[in-house]
Backbone:
């Protein structure tokens, strides 16, 4: 891993790695903070709600304190229960009466949602801050002093048990109303402190936070590998584009070098024979003009390719069936002049929605290629028809064919199966590359197949109605 990281540091991928790694770090950092915040904000929610309920029910608070250790010598004044049931029970004497149902006296406190358990403690104090009730000896609360400055406020306090251990409590001190303590004669009850033991909760939260931290650190380390992978993936199209650009420049330079060399030689030859007339130099001049035309054709094709790369939008119009016949008629005449035959089967009978200019250029490229790569007495077959929702254009020839390896490269710019032969026939290896871009613009596909016994078949499938 360290070796890979060192190699990555010296490559263009490193900037992408830093970006991805920073994003992962930010995501996992925020997730950790959010989880911790949620855990800490909800760990005391139930106890704090109970505190508020108990503060609003001082009678219940006092009853809970009495049950947990208020002196039994205190006289309790009970309220008479008016709803107690009295029923007569028949006996042999018929004069006995027995209580049934609720007791005649009971302590009444308001209904609430309070949920009390052994973790809750209530300590009562007099007006001077002296503790009045007994508390659990092992809880360490016997040394807790009343904090009059934090009345009606929920705080945290820590006490030490007789065993020397620290216990953490959630606590709230409040002033008891006179009406609530009037039932307890003989005691100067003024304040009450409600406490909830949070030591176990804090221990559990600390354990959960440690687990979350370990998990997040684990994923954070995994994100390093993910960042390296994503940086490599992000760089692939850039490197591929850079490689294609490099090859394009090299190929374009190579294609331009030959005609420029010819032009230079011909012009230098003219300077070596200054006394020669135009007729004497006609061969050199004609050769120079031919090279100039080739260079013009090359630059035109390069310009067309550059425009396609910029995302040229097609102009969709109605294409009549006669358009295909009109486009191919000139090639039929050219083939006859070169001793070749073009056999056209045009079965389109409906209007097609597409770009006329691009369609004409596509057909020109395919037919021109078929004528270049067919034999001297070559035969070319052009089939144009519609099937389902598609327009099919098939161009076949009886040339020397294309190998499986070359089929993968023929759509690359400047690639030629037979460079010497193509050069003689005026090709630059840009036609099929331009054809593929036209087909992609028109949302179509192209396939290359072998024709038996020899030759090649190019089949184009385009939608009859172009849709964006």
Residues:
């Amino acid at each position: 891993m360290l070796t890979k990281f060192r190699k990555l540091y010296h490559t263009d991928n490193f900037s992408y790695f830093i970006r991805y790694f920073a994003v992962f770090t930010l995501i996992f950092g925020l997730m950790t903070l959010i989880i911790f915040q949620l855990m800490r904000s909800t760990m005391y929610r139930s106890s704090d709600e109970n505190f508020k309920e108990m503060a609003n029910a001082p009678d219940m608070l006092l009853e809970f304190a009495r049950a947990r250790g208020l002196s039994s010598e205190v006289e309790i004044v009970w309220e008479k229960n008016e709803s107690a049931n009295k029923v007569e029970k028949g006996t042999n004497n018929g004069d006995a009466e027995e209580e049934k149902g609720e007791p005649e006296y009971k302590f009444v406190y308001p209904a609430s949602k309070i949920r009390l358990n052994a973790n809750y403690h209530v300590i009562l104090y007099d007006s001077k801050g002296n503790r009045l009730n007994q508390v659990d000896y092992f809880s360490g609360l016997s040394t807790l002093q009343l904090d009059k400055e934090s009345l009606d406020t929920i705080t945290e306090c820590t006490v030490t048990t007789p065993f020397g251990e620290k216990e953490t409590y959630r606590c709230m001190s409040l002033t008891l109303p006179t009406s609530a303590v009037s039932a307890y004669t003989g005691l100067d009850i003024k304040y009450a402190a409600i406490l909830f033991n949070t030591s176990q909760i804090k221990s559990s939260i600390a354990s959960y936070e440690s687990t979350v931290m370990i998990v997040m650190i684990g994923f954070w380390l995994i994100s390093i590998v993910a960042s390296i992978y994503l940086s490599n993936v992000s760089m692939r199209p850039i490197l591929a584009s850079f490689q294609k650009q490099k090859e394009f420049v090299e190929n374009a330079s190579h294609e331009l070098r030959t005609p420029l060399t010819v032009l230079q030689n011909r012009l230098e030859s003219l300077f070596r024979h200054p006394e020669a007339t135009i007729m004497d130099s006609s061969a050199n001049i004609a050769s120079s003009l031919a090279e100039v035309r080739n260079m013009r054709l090359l630059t035109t094709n390069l310009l067309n390719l550059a425009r396609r790369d910029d995302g040229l939008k097609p102009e969709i119009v109605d294409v009549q069936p006669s358009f295909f016949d009109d486009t191919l008629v000139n090639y039929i005449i050219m083939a006859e002049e070169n001793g070749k035959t073009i056999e056209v089967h045009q079965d389109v009978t409906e209007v097609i929605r597409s770009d006329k200019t691009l369609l004409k250029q596509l057909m020109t490229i395919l037919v021109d290629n078929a004528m270049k790569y067919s034999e001297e007495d070559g035969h070319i077959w052009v089939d144009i028809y519609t099937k389902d929702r598609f327009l099919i254009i098939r161009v076949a020839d009886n040339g020397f064919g294309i190998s499986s390896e070359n089929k993968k490269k023929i759509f690359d710019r400047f690639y030629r199966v037979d460079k010497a032969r193509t050069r003689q026939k005026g090709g630059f290896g840009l036609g099929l590359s331009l054809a593929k871009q036209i087909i992609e613009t028109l949302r179509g596909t192209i396939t290359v197949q072998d024709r038996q016994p020899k030759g090649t078949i190019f089949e184009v499938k385009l939608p009859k109605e172009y849709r964006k």
Observations:
- Residues 45-82+102-197 form one domain.
- Residues 71-81, 83-113, 419-424 have pLDDT under 50 and may be disordered.
- The chain has three domains: 45-82+102-197, 243-296, 312-463.
